[in-house]
Design goal:
Length: 199
């Protein structure tokens, strides 16, 4: 049997390219994941800043009727980062901060966690049915607490979907803030909640 040439065993030319070929896919995957994460975090911060500004502008007297203009400011700020983003806006008015996002009170007679079978509830928003959210849509009045929610959906700029399991092609984020309207007038007194029965 012929022994290999001694200089061939010591020859390391070309080793670097083989090492790079082994490491490159993992390195590129990590880099894409970090870039995607950074992009999503930056977009979230831009959205949060824009809705804080819009919410402050919504809390002053005379903001009612300027929904489109205020939402346009948020849309412009977000689309500067994510041009293909679609945004949805939601404003709900509450009498106090503690009411924000709370369901209407009801008596769960059968302990099933659902308002049903004629169980009594307090119709806080006066719409005649039990709601998971006791607020009313819109800007509210003086001194009302307004919950402003913006949901953004956009396509991911990096193709992480093909390499990282559990990821989707589009990314959805939501930001919300709650502020009290300025005391430009006396707060409207809500009528006492009417007791009704769940269907």
């Amino acid at each position: 049997m012929k022994r290999p040439h001694p200089t061939l065993l010591r020859d390391q030319r070309g080793v670097t390219i083989i090492e790079f070929a082994l490491i490159a896919p993992v390195l590129l995957l990590m880099l894409m994941g970090l870039l995607d994460l950074g992009y999503n975090m930056y977009t979230t911060e831009m959205l949060q800043g824009a809705i804080q500004n819009a919410a402050r502008n919504s809390s002053i007297e005379g903001a009612t009727g300027k929904e489109a203009a205020l939402d346009s400011i948020v849309t412009t700020a977000v689309r500067a980062v994510a041009p293909s983003a679609t945004l949805t806006f939601n404003r709900r008015a509450y009498n106090s901060f503690t009411d924000a996002g709370r369901p209407e009170d009801y008596t769960d007679v059968d302990s099933d966690g659902t308002c049903n079978h004629g169980e009594p509830f307090e119709d806080a928003n006066g719409n005649g049915s039990w709601d998971l959210d006791r607020g009313q849509a819109g800007f509210g009045g003086a001194r009302d607490a307004i919950l402003y929610t913006v949901t953004v959906n956009y396509l991911r700029p990096f193709p992480v979907v093909a390499f990282i399991p559990g990821q989707t092609r589009d990314f959805t984020l939501s930001a919300r803030t709650v502020l009290r309207n300025q005391p430009y007038g006396k707060q409207a007194t809500n009528p006492a909640p009417v007791t009704r029965n769940c269907p």
